[in-house]
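Reviewer comment 2.1 asked that we show a complete input and output for one of the modelled complexes. We chose the zinc ion case, as it is the one discussed in the main text.
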Amino acid sequence: MAIRKIRYDGDDVLRKVCKPIEEITPRIKTLIDDMYDTMYEANGVGLAAPQVGILKRLVVIDTGESGPLTLINPEIVSYDGEQEGDEGCLSLPGLVGTVIRPYHVVCKAYDENMREIMVEGEELLARAICHELDHLDGILYKDKAIDGLYSVDMPQE
Ligand code: ZN
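Response of the prediction step:
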């Protein structure tokens, strides 16, 4: 168990295209565990590997309703509908912006045992999947925010 350092906007690593994972090594297993620790510690609902400086196609998501989801080499295979809502990112602390996302997505990925899985999400889960997958291609939500970003009070714990 370890908390990794979250990379912030301005760090080049957030703008790179990540490489697929070929096999689950002990290093990858540790990375997955650490990403969950880091995400929960920061009160996030999702975290992508490049946010902790690793250029691999791996994200973890936990919206609460979905339970923990480890998505390796994920791709969105279909989507429909539209939702407009506020989004934030652990790499841009204290900021939010309005982003239009699909209402519903179906995502193909591999789990931590490299078994193929299909994950279907609506609303927040669909938004989280789209947001995290964008990170794997060097895209930040601020690139898509329709009215720019604005500050929010950070929750104090
Ligand atoms: Zn993010």
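The two ends are 21 Å apart (CA to CA). We note this here for comparison with the apo prediction described in Section 3.2.
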